[in-house]
Amino acid sequence: MDYKLGGAIMDKQLEVLSKSIEAIHDQAKRFGLDFFPMRFEICPADVLYAFGAYGMPTRFSHWTFGKNFYKMKLQYDYNLSRIYELVINSNPCYAFLLEGNDLIENKLVIAHVFAHSDFFKNNIYFSSTSRQMVETMSIYASKIREYEFKYGHREVEIFLDAALSIQEHIEPPSPFKTTNEELENPDSHHKETPYDDLWAIDSKPKEEVELEPNRKFPPKPTKDILGFIMENSSQLEDWQRDILAMVRDEMRYFWPQMETKIINEGWAAYWHTRIMRELDLNEDETIKFSQLHANILNTGGRQINPYLLGSKIFEDIERRWNNPSTEEKERYGRIGGKGREKIFEVRACEKDSSFLRNYLTQELVEELDLYLYQKVGTNWVVVEKDWEKVREGLVNRLINCGFPYIVVEDADYHRRGELYLKHRYEGVELDVPYLEKTLPHVYLLWGRPVHIETVIDGEPVVFSYDGRKNTKH
Fold this sequence. Notes:
The chain is of the alpha/beta class. Among the domains are: 3-123 and 260-296; 306-400, no CATH class. The protein is built from 19 helices and 11 strands. The strands form 3 sheets. The protein has a 5-stranded mixed β-sheet with strand order 7-8-9-10-11, with helices on one face. The longest helix is centred in the first third of the chain and has 21 residues, at 11-31.
């Protein structure tokens, strides 16, 4: 048996739910899903929403997580939204179910969770993530509590504010290439455990970088701003460098989840539908499942529903590879009957941006009534309905998980050790108030004036912070 169930519910309920898990597990296996051993836990709303706000059950404390918790919990209390489950990319895979779920809700959620675990295990973008991150984050949380005790809670909180303000600006793990360090030094140390980076921080003394005249540092622009500051800031103490390493490691773990939201949720929705259809549901359960499933695929609101879009694309792929048109047979050599095989291939090798670019068709754009819109004055206006432009517009918003692409251009600007960042502008301007609030955080981390080049109203602009005030020129 590769699943377990726990939680504070009645023995009879536990027995019924355990049998349901077994039936769903067996059906998922028959469909060919390949998942990690599962660990299910029934949790009260307060606990589940705390896990949801922190992103993990063992993460360090910070006021931003508390803010997220109260926002999410308030929406739950007023019946505006609801988290039915939380599933962790780990081995074994931990899934936390909401205590208030009834049996049919839990059946749907459990089927959904098995598909998520299959995706975590087999999608290539998760191949370099740590499967022991629950334990690793617990160690990180303990270390940060030690720093709070030693250096003061307020001092650590201020530094965490700065670190978290740029946590998205990393070089995410790539399954397709080795790291720059490995390319430059083939004999570099190979990590044997998830904690080797922490030992390296303590064991390697920080060396001052000596630049040759007119030599640029770094030699090439680097996207990994957090890692660059961690390695090269001369102002950081060891404990601060350690915190940056932990924040960066956590973000590298979360990144694949952020760049596969549509395909991951679509895969889970596709499979929970098919698994539930194979279960022996009575009439009331069938009606309740249909209502729940319809709510999950609801198209309301201004945002793309990842469950709907992702599952529709998978269904369309399966249909087109099972029954290719005459043109598809002649042009691509499709022989038919390969739909199921094809969706498993797509699940293994795509992320959201490539998933939409390669498989979002004109027919689906029209069926789902997808379009691009923007705010003009006080009104929201549809600006594009051409299917190719809609697809490219959606893809562009997914690149770099939607975050601005900013690089370290020069870490010795004006030969004074100042940090010069450059925004790779591609039509979307930076949020200036947010930028001006973030620069002081970067200054705290770097210890010297910070500059960022961007484009505002079509003109190049440089924002600077010297420790006292923001300037623009």
